[in-house]
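In response to the reviewer comment on reproducibility (Comment 2.3), we provide here a single inverse folding case reported in full, input and output, so that an independent group could reproduce the run without further information from us. The structure tokens appear first.
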């Protein structure tokens, strides 16, 4: 069979990928020496760029994290002259100051490339029309989706989040074939299309979701309500240009990431030692082409795992699992560590349940913690068996988590919907 020709997708070979990545690390370190922050870190570690010849050498490099970005505000870790900065993007911070990342012209070119790769992975063509429903402005998402679509050659409809009425009108009038949004926004749109009977009046065939974890149930619900050919999860963060660092394919066997742009390690969050492929740990990233603000072993706090073997899609592009949560958003409940991804996994085992849930943590007068989980019933499932279903889910959760959870099953489409990331955990303790 003649291999499919790709305009943007790389095809990696195991015998050359590691050497390519190590050369990228050395290039990144040479660039990092232009930053006083980085230079002091590397001098303290006693590592020079040309010292990196193996993964063992990579692990000698110092780590960076969000505090390095905060300490260097407003242009942290800058490795090019300020006059070479052509754009900034930022993400929200918890201390009042945002994490600001600078971009050179070359950075924007790489940013558009990684998004164009994602569109190609999703099976789009230049004849597709991309309607963008993610945030513009300081946030990277809207700019990334638009840059990539323009690089790819697809007509772009830059709407932004919210304003469902406008989205529905443009879907109908402009005949958009792909929709880019958070999973929550995509589900909200799908429910509105279904409610207004618009499915036969729109031309959507693909949806690309990012910014939050999407369960398999949520994916299938979006696809069913919109009558899609497929939908895809996209990964990314501001520190790594923005969206588009990885995307799943039609096989949905993990997210393919661009190993020529990023070296990804998965480490134990406590010991910071590598975990075996297939085991969950914290994603640590070293950029291989970033110019203005390169990343040197940046701790993302995202939990995932590297997936061994080849994807059944046939592409020789490495994969990591979906983001399973953050090492710092763990729920501590009666001495048990619980990640939201664990709840999603157990909920997914019940075909009668949908993908939307809410967690509420409270503490009573006796200082005893309570965890209440509300889960939507799947559309079309009658409510007569809610009590038995809730009891069965509670038993399964107790077995999986070693914690007792108070469960209630609620009607479909009754939990809060949002245009952006859904807040599913409310800690009221």
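Designed residues, in position order:
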């Amino acid at each position: 069979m003649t291999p499919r020709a790709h305009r943007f997708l790389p095809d990696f070979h195991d015998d050359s990928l590691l050497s390519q990545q190590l050369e990228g690390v050395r290039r990144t370190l040479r660039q990092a020496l232009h930053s006083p922050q980085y230079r002091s870190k590397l001098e303290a570690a006693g590592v020079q760029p040309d010292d990196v010849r193996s993964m063992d050498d990579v692990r000698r490099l110092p780590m960076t994290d969000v505090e390095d970005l905060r300490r260097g505000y407003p242009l942290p870790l800058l490795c090019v002259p300020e006059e070479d900065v052509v754009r900034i993007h930022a993400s929200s911070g918890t201390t009042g100051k945002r994490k600001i990342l600078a971009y050179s012209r070359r950075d924007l070119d790489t940013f558009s490339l990684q998004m164009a790769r994602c569109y190609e992975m999703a099976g789009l063509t230049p004849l597709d029309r991309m309607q963008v429903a993610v945030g513009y402005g300081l946030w990277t998402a809207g700019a990334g989706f638009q840059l990539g679509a323009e690089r790819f050659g697809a007509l772009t409809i830059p709407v932004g989040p919210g304003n469902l009425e406008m989205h529905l009108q443009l879907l109908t009038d402009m005949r958009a074939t792909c929709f880019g949004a958070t999973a929550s926004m995509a589900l909200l749109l799908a429910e509105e299309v279904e409610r207004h009977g618009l499915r036969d009046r729109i031309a959507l065939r693909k949806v690309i979701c990012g910014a939050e974890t999407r369960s398999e149930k949520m994916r299938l619900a979006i696809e069913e309500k919109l009558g899609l050919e497929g939908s895809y999860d996209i990964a990314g963060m501001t520190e790594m240009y923005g969206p588009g660092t990885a995307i799943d394919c039609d096989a949905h066997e993990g997210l393919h990431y661009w190993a020529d742009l990023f070296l990804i390690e998965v480490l134990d969050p406590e010991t910071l030692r590598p975990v075996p492929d297939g085991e969950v740990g914290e994603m640590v990233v070293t950029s291989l082409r970033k110019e203005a603000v390169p990343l040197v072993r940046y701790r993302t706090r995202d939990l995932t795992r590297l997936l061994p073997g080849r994807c059944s899609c046939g592409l020789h592009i490495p994969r990591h699992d979906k983001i399973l949560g953050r090492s710092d958003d763990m729920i501590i409940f009666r001495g048990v560590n619980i990640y939201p991804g664990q709840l999603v996994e157990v909920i997914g085992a019940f075909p009668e349940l949908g993908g939307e849930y809410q967690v509420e943590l409270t503490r009573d007068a006796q200082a005893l913690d309570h965890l209440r989980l509300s889960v939507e019933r799947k559309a079309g499932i009658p409510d007569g068996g809610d009590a038995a279903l809730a009891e069965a889910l509670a038993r399964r959760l107790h077995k999986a988590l070693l914690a007792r959870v108070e469960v209630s099953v609620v009607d479909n489409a009754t939990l809060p919907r949002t245009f952006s990331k859904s807040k599913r955990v409310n800690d009221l303790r």
